[in-house]
Structure formats: C-alpha cells, structure tokens
Design brief:
The structure holds 2 protein chains of 2 kinds. By secondary structure, chain A is mainly alpha-helical. Chain A has a domain of 231 residues. In chain A, helix 3 packs across helix 13, helix 4 packs across helix 11 and helix 8 runs antiparallel to helix 11. By secondary structure, chain B is an alpha/beta fold. In chain B, helix 2 packs across helix 3, helix 2 runs parallel beside helix 4 and helix 3 packs across helix 4. Chain B folds into 2 domains: 152 residues, P-loop containing nucleotide triphosphate hydrolases (Rossmann fold), CATH 3.40.50.300; 54 residues, no CATH class. Classes of the chains: A mainly alpha, B alpha/beta. Chain A: It is found in: Cell membrane. Chain A: Its main location: membrane.
C-alpha cells in the first residue's frame, strides 16, 4: 500500500500543495519572538502583548467551534467570565495560581459541556439564541449570588508577586503567551487529525458525515467543550492581568467582538485567530486614542464597535475568507 | 415473483414486511427482501416508488411503522452513524460531499480503520481520482465528484455497498466504468438506479417497486419480460 501511496504522491506533485508548518516549530518560534518582544517593548505595549495572548486562547477555541464545526456561539464572553470568576474564587481561598488556572479551565469545560449538549440539538439562529441567552444570563448570576460574587463590584484576585527578575508586564506576557502557545499547539494537533476532519465533515454535510460513521452530536459537543476550555483559560488569564473580575468586564459586546474578530481574521484558521486577537487589542486602542483626541468619552465607547463593523465590511468585501486567507500566489481550487 | 419474508437463518441483510407511511402517503407497503452476501441487487421503479425510502429505512434515517430488519439472521436496528461499523456504506443521490475539504480528506472521513490513510489512497486509486487528491471537490467535474463519493464509501471497506442513483448525470463512458466497478466490487451491492441498461447488466436480482408496493422480484431476464413491470413504467395501455 505504501508503494501505491508513494506512486500517487509522486503523480500529484503538480497541484500546489500547501506546506503546513509544524505546530511545534510555530510554538518554539512564537515563544522566542514573545520573549524578545518583552525585553524590547515598553511596559504598556508589553501589557497589550499579554492581552493579545489571553485573547488568542479564546479566539483560537472559538474559530475551531465556529469555523471548523459550524456552530455559532454568541456566548463566549460568558464562558470567559466563568473561567475568570472560578480563578478569582480559587485564588482568594488557596492562592495557587497554576492549579487555579487548571480548575478554571475544568469548571468552564463542565459548563461548556452542558451548553454543548443543548447546542448539539440546535441549528443556526436557534443555536445563536441559546448562546446569546448564556451571554446575558451568566453575568447576572453575580447579582443573584452577591455574597459569593460580590455583585457588580466583583472580586479582587489575590496573586503572589512575580519573580524578581521580571517586571509585572513581562510576567503577564510570559504567562499569557505560554498558555496561548500551548492552546494553539493542542488545537493544531487536534484539528489536523481525525477530530478535525470529523468537525469539518459535520460542518459541510451532516447526512454524509453520519453515513461516514460520525456521531454528529458527539462531535458537536466535543467541539463545544474544547472551545469552552479555551474560553475559560482566556478568562482566567484576564482575571490574572486585571487582578479583579466583575460582570462589566464580560459584556455581551465582548462576545460579539470575539465573533467579529475571528471572522475578520479568517474563520477556521488558527492564524486567523491570531489576527483576530491582535485586532481585539488594537482596534479599541485606536478608538481610545481617537476618542481622547476628540475629547468625548461617549464617542470612545462606541467607536470600537463602529471600527469592528467597518473593518468587517471592508474585509468581507476584499477577502471573504478573512485576512488570513490573503496569500500571494495562491491558486484557486486547491488547498 | 417472491416477496415472501426471507429466511432468518440466511446470511446477509433481510427486510421483513417493511411498511412506512408519511402522513396519509403509503411510501412502502409490506416490502420484504433478502440480500445474500456477494449479490448485486437492484431496486427499481418509477419516480416516487419508494426506492430511496427503502434505502433510508436500511440506513436508519426512516423508522418503519411495521416490519423489521435482520443482519446475518440477527435483529438489526440501524443508526446512520453506526452503519460503517456494521460494514454498510452508502452513497447519496447527487454528490454529498465536504466542500471545505480536499478530495483526500473527503475519502479519509470514510476510512475509519487504523490504516485509514492506506485505505483512502487505495479507494482513490480504485476510483481513478488519486491524481486529484489535493484538489477541492468543487473544482472537479461532476463525474469526478461522484467518483470521490464512491471512493469515500469504498474506503470503509464495506461488505454491503448501497448506491443511490450512482449513474445520475454520468455519460456513457462513466457508466461503463461504474458497471465494471460494481461487477468487480467483490461485495454485496444494493443499487437504486434509473439507468436500466446499467441495472440489467450488473444485477443478479432486481426488486421492482410501484407506489411503495413490491410488484416483481427476479433476475434481469425475468424482470425484462414481466408484464406488471412494463405496466408500471409505461402505463396500463402497454
């Protein structure tokens, strides 16, 4: 059989085969770049770099769910909140950050599994409606159980000081990007194998996928669980960076921003998730500067959403596959 | 014509008195069929006769109101995503494909053994589309896309291959290739098809349905001369 495959591989040399980068190579290179940047960027830019890392955890998981599996989620902000609050509660009781992050991921995974079970029975606008409800309901839980979550004031997060050799921003960037690179590595391996193929098959044609032996519900729940775990990790990292959590940090607009970011970046591509994460930090920052220049705080609040909307329209017109699909010398019909 | 309940002790797939209603429409009316291992069985009939419904019952997409199925003499309650595990693969009318995946990935989805990649390449070779392995199905001509779907079904190494109008939209040359593939499949084949020349040339046995009712079961020669079949296809005046 190997002979057959080699023969065939030789014969198909003519179509341009997209060379995929090794995930390990990407992670190692990414780590080196991040470390170098943390020693060259000023503290505020290093903080922004850390924020990109935290967002990347979330966007990478969301692009797998929406781009590869075709499930639309408008509730990932709520899953981030779940991770953030879990970490805050853990830290305030035990102050063991590494374990706290793992617990935050596990709790969010469990919440994601419950939502995923319901989501697997819904399609299109009904699924969007369910996740939208989650985005609206979860922050309000903090008011209902205000003794635990301290209502709108939220919780502070107890953290040990960073190692003496690092500044706070460097430590945050290393932590966030360490988590982000592990997330990307794991997702790259997952999506390249059978699980990735199954998710895309379910997205493209459920009937054909079932006939090929794929359990639609199991695949969809698994995709939601993986994505929820990533959102929980991202939420926990945001709690670490802000050293506090409050419902105001996870509004409905955050979920919309996350979705827009992965669409602009390129649905279903981890490189698109990275672009989306950068946009999530860069566009509000630009809006902030313009708002400040105009001297209007109200304008600043709305500009970020406007920017995302405009960028979304422009990118969809110029590159329907998102910014990550823009490849020089790419031939149509092959991938 | 023999549409009596099949003998349970026989190997292979058997349908016993299958009846399916969609509201007031009787889609299948007391259909029984024995598909012995290695046989090529055709299911024909005018449009709306219930051919695809019969396939959907075997695949578990449609549950019969009455009747049962057996596989190798044991009760068989089909579920679509368990079919490949039971050695059954089916192609769909048209081309049910995964448009966002390459041809190789499409076929790999169907190959679920430990040697999935080897099975996929073998199926691609067998269907003559290995050279398009890295292409997207949408970039291929219709006939090639049909071959890709067939390759995905074959990649699971089925013992029962269900083909739902595989010749639809194909030219004479492609149909000849398809006939050769079916004859050399070395597996049980259930074939729903309108192309009579193909059905008559490859099938060992043919079941004819009309308005959900089995009206004939026999060899191609018997079916060709059956008056009820001619009447169903051409009308009472025939």
């Amino acid at each position: 059989m190997t002979v057959v495959r080699d023969r065939v591989t030789t014969r198909i040399a003519s179509p341009p085969m997209r060379r995929r980068l090794s995930p390990l190579l990407v992670v190692v290179a990414g780590a080196a770049i991040v470390v170098a940047l943390t020693y060259t960027l000023p503290p505020f830019r290093t903080y922004q770099l850390a924020t990109v890392g935290a967002y990347l955890c979330v966007t990478a998981g969301l692009t797998v769910l929406t781009g590869l599996n075709g499930q639309l989620s408008l509730g990932h902000g709520a899953l981030m909140a779940t991770g953030a609050y879990t970490l805050a509660l853990w830290q305030n009781k035990f102050n063991l950050l590494a374990v706290g992050i793992v617990v935050a991921v596990l709790v969010t995974t469990a919440v994601g599994a419950v939502i995923g079970l319901a989501a697997a029975r819904l399609r299109g606008p009904y699924l969007a409606g369910l996740t939208l409800a989650v985005a609206v309901v979860v922050p309000s839980i903090t008011s209902t159980f205000d003794e635990t979550f301290n209502s709108d004031q939220g919780l502070s997060v107890i953290l040990n000081p960073p190692p003496e050799s690092l500044t706070v921003e460097q430590w945050q960037a290393w932590l966030c990007w360490g988590a982000a690179l592990v997330t990307v590595f794991v997702l790259a391996l997952l999506t390249r194998g059978r699980f990735g193929r199954d998710m895309r098959a379910v997205r493209d044609d459920e009937t054909a996928a079932r006939l090929a032996g794929i359990s639609i519900a199991r695949t969809q729940v698994a995709a939601f669980v993986v994505s929820a775990a990533c959102a929980g990790l991202g939420g926990a990292l945001f709690a670490v960076m802000a050293q506090s959590v409050s419902p105001g940090a996870f509004p409905l607009t955050l979920s919309l921003f996350l979705l827009m970011a992965i669409v602009i970046g390129g649905l279903g591509r981890l490189s698109g998730a990275l672009i989306g994460a950068v946009l999530l930090v860069a566009l509000p920052a630009v809006a902030h500067e313009i708002g400040e220049a105009a001297g209007s705080q109200r304008l600043e609040g709305n500009l970020a959403l406007t920017f995302f909307g405009v960028v979304l329209v422009v990118v969809m017109l110029a590159a329907p596959g998102g910014l990550a699909s823009l490849r020089p010398f790419k031939k149509k019909g092959h991938r | 014509m023999s549409t009596e309940p099949p003998d349970d002790t026989d190997q292979g797939l058997a349908l016993h008195h299958i009846t399916v209603r969609f509201g007031g429409l009787l889609a299948l009316d007391d259909v029984s069929l024995q598909v012995a291992p290695g046989r090529v069985v055709g299911i024909i009939g005018p449009n709306g006769a219930g051919k695809t419904t019969l396939f959907n019952v075997i695949c578990g997409f449609v549950g019969p109101q009455s009747g049962s199925l057996t596989l190798d003499g044991k009760p068989f309650r089909p579920r679509p995503h368990h079919l490949t595990r039971r050695g059954i693969a089916r192609t769909l009318q048209g081309v049910g494909q995964f448009g966002g995946m390459t041809v190789l990935e499409n076929v790999l989805v169907g190959a679920r053994s430990r040697k999935a990649e080897a099975d996929a390449w073998a199926a691609l070779e067998r269907c003559g589309v290995a050279e398009h392995a890295r292409a997207l199905p949408g970039s291929l001509p219709y006939a090639k896309r049909k071959r890709v779907e067939l390759a995905r079904a074959l990649a699971s190494k089925p013992r029962i291959l269900m083909l739902d109008e595989p010749a639809g939209g194909l030219d004479t040359e492609e149909i000849r290739w398809l006939a050769e593939l079916i004859q050399g499949a070395q597996t049980t084949v259930l074939l729903v098809e309108h192309h009579m020349e193909l059905v008559m040339s490859v099938c060992d046995e043919i079941l004819v349905l009309d308005f959900g009712k089995p009206i004939a079961l026999g060899t191609p020669g018997e079916i060709r001369t059956n008056e009820k079949v001619a009447e169903a296809y051409l009308g009472a005046a025939a």
